[in-house]
Write a structure and sequence with these properties.
16% strand, alpha+beta, single chain, 5 strands, three-stranded antiparallel β-sheet, two-stranded antiparallel sheet
Length: 109
């Protein structure tokens, strides 16, 4: 069973979310065309700004799948796994956040 709210943006990009039955049980999992905010934040592409890696590794690749009529609806666990491209990006950005926080603290003293 797949229940999904489905739509198309003006450029033909699918949108929407839904519920999918898990392994012939009564349990369901949330699925979506695009990752939710928390899944994106846990992935390695979230640098707090849109990077060339976000554009190339994620967005353009996803659009090319749609152009090839490959429509997969991952659940949130799969989204988190699928968004782990460059693990060093997340560590680097987290380091910048710590550095910036320390700089602000020093200026307040």
């Amino acid at each position: 069973m797949l229940v999904i709210a489905y739509g198309m943006e003006p450029r033909g990009i699918p949108t929407g979310t839904g519920q999918k039955r898990v392994d012939n049980t009564e349990q369901t999992a949330s699925v979506s065309w695009w990752p939710r905010t928390n899944s994106w934040a846990r992935g390695s592409l979230d640098a707090s700004w849109w990077t060339p890696q976000c554009e190339a590794d994620f967005y353009q690749k996803r659009l090319s799948h749609f152009a090839q009529h490959i429509y997969k609806l991952p659940n949130q666990t799969k989204w988190r796994h699928n968004l782990k491209f460059r693990l060093g990006v997340k560590k680097c950005c987290d380091g910048y956040e710590v550095w910036a926080s320390d700089m602000i603290k020093c200026q307040k003293m």
